[in-house]
Amino acid sequence: MNRPAHLRTALELAAAGVPPLPLRVGKLPFGNCRACAKNACGGRPNMKNAGPCRCPGVCHGWAAATTDPRTLTSPAWATVWRQAVAVAYHPGGAGLTVVDLDSAAAIGWARASLPATRIVPTTRGEHWLYQGVMQSANAVGPGVDVKSSMQYARWLGPGTGTMTALPDVVRALIVKVPTAVRTTVVTVPAPAGGGECPHRTPTYLDRGIAMAEQRITEAREAVHVTVYRTFLAVLSTHGRCGCLTEAHTARLFTAAQAKGESPRHCTDAWTNALTTLGLSHV
Q1: What is the pTM of this model?
Q2: What is the band of 72 on the pLDDT scale with cuts at 50, 70, 90?
Q3: pLDDT in tens, 124-160
Q4: Residue 258: strand, helix, or coil
Q5: I need a surface site. Which of 14, 94, 241, 270 has the fewest CB within 10 A?
């Protein structure tokens, strides 16, 4: 393997404002140095709950990422670059969010549910890159991770397509199910919006509803959370226009109830999603 190429890639990324870091075997960051073992130093200043560490080595996982060429080419990093098998970067440090899609089903869900943006092919799927920073979270859906702040992603090239702003539907993926809003209504809610649908064609909505049904149906655990997040995703995309009908919401409720959700839980999840998005009075 051409080890110097990893350093050249890192320097190119740093020059573009993207903080890189080397990865060792297993596609993992290098471990902390002896002085920083078990975070005895308190961590780097740019880490959560960080202390005064000024270690010059490649320590502290994602927080080792830097755009300083002097650090990247320092003697302390030279040995690590010779051992590196890949280059990663800190998306949050570059003002980006990566939606990591690890399967064909996840890619299908993204195409039906997320706005088009820059796409980077990966070994098992795709990285969808958005402009904006948010909290990172793993397993927000089947085969779907969100990588942004305090996380790293493998660098696999610049990708293709025009990068778009981080949408609410992606931010909503990490939102926990709220419990404050309760209702005893058990009928399917009316459509949230009242305007003309701006989203491509009716086929786009039909595909989105079908993918939402599939996501609910394939849930193996945390079904209530999956139902809420799916409702939130659908409303984030279509909740402000007039394209959703009672037939569409009935399909979603039917899929949820087939997984054991009660009509009341379905209505609660829908109402909570509306409230979260500020659509409860639309």
Answers
A1: 0.66
A2: very high
A3: 999 999 999 999 998 888 899 999 998 999 999 999 9
A4: helix
A5: 241
The CA distance from 247 to 185, in Å, is 17
* Joined tokens for residue 81: 């670059």
Q: Which two tokens stand for residue 120?
A: 């980077």
Contact 130, 94 (CB under 8 A): no
Nearest to 83 by CA among 19, 9, 22, 32: 22
Q: Name the strand (E) or helix (H) holding 137.
A: strand 137-141
In 10 A of CB 247, how many CB atoms?
Answer: 9
Is residue 193 within 8 A of residue 239, CB to CB? The reply is yes
Is 117:91 a contact under the CB 8 Å cutoff? no
Q: What is the pLDDT of residue 106?
A: 93
**Cβ within 8 Å of residue 236, ≥6 positions away:** 167, 168, 169, 172, 277
204 vs 210: CA distance, rounded Å = 10
Burial of 233: CB neighbours in 10 Å, binned 0-12, 13-18, 19+: buried
